[in-house]
Amino acid sequence: MLKVRILGSGTSSGVPRIGGDWGDCDPADPRNRRTRASILVSTESTRILVDTSPDMREQLLAAGVDRLDAVIWTHDHADHCHGIDDLRQLMHLNDGVPLRGLARGFALEQLQQRFAYAFYGRAGYRPTVAGELLPDAVTIGDITVRVTDQPHGGITSAGIRFENEGKSVGYSTDFHDMTNGMRDLFAGLDLWVVDALRRAPHPTHPHLEATLGWIAELRPDRALLVHMDQSMDYATLAAALPEGVAPGYDGLEAVA
């Protein structure tokens, strides 16, 4: 059984923003409280964390996670990696063995420079992460992982497809255009977890109309929208979405 848990469904500033800015989101609906974007993909024997958000500690506590087989970073932007230090406790729970951490070349280089202590250790502290390049295809436990590069402003992010026993989950966040490589990777999905930042266009993220257009084109069985800002009220959005598409929220678990 291939399962995904949305650990965080928010954009870089979360919802509410600091200062109590809920925007158009109803603060009485707990599904509108959004931490920074991250997911956990799992089977009975394998757990893969995608991104180490600044909210990772609370996210993993809420999910009851005490073990990971690997961490994959989509890219090196702060809202997707600045929780890296909290991998240290998972390393200790892993009998002191550094966690397997995978990223595309540029992202891995940036992470290793900015968080050298996590990858190489320092002053008597052992490394937390064993970094390796994220290839176009890799098997982690009983999950097959396939990857393509997505345009995200001046950099690229990793678009990821997870497969197990004929079931598939796609994760596509932080991109602004759809490439043919992405179309190939995300065709025929059972579940697509995909960025839909807001209704207004944005230069480095997809807006709602664009995302819904790609969902209609690629036709996953189901789609969950994530990386949403404070303009995207859960109930209002849910009422307007087509069949098979729903807003994601922190803590939502779905089986492919």
Automatic annotation (TrEMBL):
<feature type="domain" description="Metallo-beta-lactamase">
    <location>
        <begin position="35"/>
        <end position="229"/>
    </location>
</feature>
<protein>
    <submittedName>
        <fullName>MBL fold metallo-hydrolase</fullName>
    </submittedName>
</protein>
<dbReference type="InterPro" id="IPR001279">
    <property type="entry name" value="Metallo-B-lactamas"/>
</dbReference>
<dbReference type="Pfam" id="PF12706">
    <property type="entry name" value="Lactamase_B_2"/>
</dbReference>
<feature type="region of interest" description="Disordered">
    <location>
        <begin position="8"/>
        <end position="30"/>
    </location>
</feature>
<dbReference type="InterPro" id="IPR036866">
    <property type="entry name" value="RibonucZ/Hydroxyglut_hydro"/>
</dbReference>
